[in-house]
Amino acid sequence: STQSTWHFKGRYCLTALTLPRSVINLLPGASGISDKDIPPLKIGTCFSDSCNSEEIGNVINLLVRLASNGTVDLKAKAQCHRYHDEYGTDELVVICILSILGLLIFFGTLYDVIVVQLGWTSSASEPVINKYSQQNGASNGNVSNGNLGQDNKAFMVESNFNSPLPLEEKVAIDEPPQVQEKNVVAKSKPPQRSMAEKILLSFSAYTNGVKILNTSQPSGTLGAVNGIRFLSMGWVILGHTTLFFGENIDDNIYWYISSKVQQWTFYGLLSATVSVDSFFTLSGLLVTYLTLREMKKRGGVKKINWLMYYVHRYLRLTPAYMLSIMVFQVLMVRLSDGPNWPQDWDSIKKNCRETWWANLLYINNFIDSQKICFGWSWYLSNDMQFYVLAPLIMIPLFYSLVAGGIVSTAFLIATTVASGIIAKRSEYPALGVLGRLAPGPQAKDNNYMENLYFPCYTRMGPYIIGMVTGYILYRCKCKCKMPKLANLAGWLVCFFLVASIIYGVYPDDNKHFLTVDESVAYHALSRTGWGVAVSWIIFACATGNGGWINQLLSWPAFIPLGRLTYCAYLIHPIVINVYYLSREKRIHFTDYTVSYIFMANICMTYAWAFLTSLAFEAPMMGLEKAIFRKEKRS
Fold first, then answer.
1. Across the beta sheet with 41-48, what order do the strands follow?
2. Measuring CA to CA, how many Å separate 480 from each of 143, 327, 476, 483, 542?
3. For 33-66, how does the pLDDT look when each residue is reduced to its tens digit (9 = 90+)?
4. What is the pTM (predicted TM-score) of this model?
5. Is-contact 473 540, C-beta < 8 A?
6. Using CA atoms, how far apart are residues 124 and 193, in angstroms rounded to an integer?
7. 5-10: long-range contacts (C-beta < 8 A, 24 or more apart)?
């Protein structure tokens, strides 16, 4: 007889078991939670590598039926570990692109250090650090009418080094305006560099790093914006750490949240979605303030190059955005491994392969949320769409307060009514998609994100409020002497709005749930109200009425952190997911666990954001500057 040998390797498979309702009801605290909110029971198994996922699922189902005498029928789905030994064509292409970027950064930095900083050639200009020796500290109002944008004849809104999240004035990083200081000897004008030199220097990690980490601020900068920007980004990371990416890698997330929703303090976390409205408010305020100043300086609307207004914005945002998608889409599979690490990357990549064009055109907030690529980028599309519409409000405001007021009021009424109608039709709870985690009435459908959260026509309220505030700052030139009583009243209203929006949905130990009509009013008014509160903070700080709050928000350490906010927003879900999905054991959520993971996430996010800005954002900005700013004003 012939003896044969069967060779095989063991393979780890994570099997997800969807529990029937009869089993779920046996779990403590699960009776009030819907089936769709109960995560599957996941069990690690080891099978022969000759078995596929479907066969393993069938084996598990059969074993459960036999063990329960046919009384329990589970739907088991296995995810088996795949060995990614060979690199695909797309991976090799991305690695080549990153390698080219790395070489450009290396040679650009080398040239900058040897030729520019050490001055080894006669054409070397002064070291870049000396160019940023302006005044430091918090600005308490009185924004100067300095040399904003004078180096470019084709108008560009120099407000978005970190757009769209943290719009900031040009004076914050690109080429700070000249600040007259006493006892400073005038330096000779540095010689003009060739286009090749400018392109190479745009990749210098040294110069870009100095610009990003510089904590100096010219006199008159809206310093409080930096603090609001960083704190809002931290709030976004906190919400994503707990509420959106924590499930499926935990052993108690729903039980943890169901117990915490009975505490009013937890609603600071459940209301984290309004942090995005802070960014909308900042964006509208700064775009309007800077554009109106530029209109006045140039002598009217017709003197503005509106084509460059849009082109500049697109070029500032898109390169870092698309490069981040490229790395996420292609190389994410290589970043880690483990029992919880997704193995079916083909289906994950499918969305980006089918809908990447929507990201490129900034319209991905209007496609099916199940097919959206880079899911958190819906915000970028909203902000770009608001930016496109902004001149429809800014131009009337520039010529007439009445005309601008009518147009902005019409937009505000439209977005308020649209939000109310959509919320009423589907009876969405005040907390939106998070309402399923809290007690109280539930929505008629599960399409809250597509219907109410993503569309620009339901999110424009804070942006409009920011635009109106930017107009007021432009007209008053950031100077407003306010009686103490009026200032106090403004802060009290601000605190009332913040507290009511965050904690107004608290059910008070299940004694009162918001009715459908109350939830509709909340959806229609809360985001605009939040924009009013944020706008007051910026206005008070910019006009010298902010006191210690302005000093806190204008802390110099917030300046570089604010510059990194755009890249932090792009990559923070990747950082969070890599940590969660790389774990070999489940996380048991407690207040201390959430606190430690949040602090780690925010530190790692900004560390990687700094590297992302050096590699993707800052070089592309340098290229754009070298190409479009050939002529300098004498």
1. 41-48, 10-18, 75-80
2. 12, 48, 7, 10, 9
3. 666 666 777 888 888 888 888 888 888 888 888 8
4. 0.85
5. no
6. 9
7. 8/48, 8/49, 8/50, 9/48, 9/49, 10/46, 10/47, 10/48, 10/49
